[in-house]
Amino acid sequence: MYKVSDINKMNDKQLIDIICELFFLMPGVSVIDKYLSEDIFKIEFTITNSKSRLLVVYLAEVSNTKLDLWAVFEPYTREAEANLEEAIHYRFSINDEGNAVDLSKWLSAHLVWQMYACHMIEPDQEKYYCQIFGANSRSA
User: Fold this and answer.
1) Taking the complete model, does pTM exceed 0.90, yes or no?
2) Contact, 112 vs 131, CB < 8 A?
3) For residue 85, how many other CB atoms are within 10 A of its CB?
4) Half-sphere exposure of residue 32, counting CA atoms within 13 Å on the CB side?
5) Count of CB atoms within 10 A of residue 61's CB?
6) Is pLDDT at 49 greater than 80 in this prediction?
7) Which residues contact 137 (CB under 8 A, 6 or more apart)?
8) 4 closest CA partner among 128, 135, 138
9) What is the DSSP pairing of strand 40-47 with strand 88-95?
10) Best exposed site among 20, 55, 107, 119 by fewest CB in 10 Å?
11) SS3 of residue 85 by DSSP
12) What average pLDDT does this structure show over 106-134?
């Protein structure tokens, strides 16, 4: 965990690692790829848990963030049958010159609030992540 004094000094790699840490706290979510710069944010992942899947789709709606999804295998193939849980990939992506970091924090704050509401994280975790993403805690 980062100290409060270190939060404002985070670089893009540290911030994307914290965002991924939050994604890993959702049941059934595996992060495949990640990237963050001033202009681009993306996080690609799979979801094997229905509640997490619902949370991710809802998150896209409430944060107004682009969510792509696609089939990795054609549904009739042996690869699909053998890997049904990983057959669909999801990706949040933001392309916004100079604003991707702030918008990734916006998305992450919404994720924290929803995860807290769904009892996926504890109040102290919600407060910690809200502080990192510059959001008001809803567990106070």
Assistant:
1) no
2) no
3) 12
4) 12
5) 10
6) yes
7) 126, 127, 130, 131
8) 128
9) antiparallel
10) 119
11) helix
12) 95
Six-digit token pair at 87?
């057959």
| Residue closest to 115 by CA, chosen among 34, 32, 20, 27 | 27
Say what the pLDDT of residue 2 is.
53
Residue 93: CA atoms inside 13 Å, Cβ hemisphere, count? 8
Give pLDDT, residue 52: 96
Helices (H), the chain: 12-24, 50-63, 78-82, 100-117, 123-133
Task: Give the span between the Cα atoms of 102 and 118, in whole angstroms.
Answer: 24
Residue with tokens 């619902």: 54
Bridge-partner residues for 68, per DSSP?
91
CA atoms of 43 and 20, how far apart (whole Å)? 8
Residues in the chain: 140
> What's the distance, CA 60 to chain centroid?
10
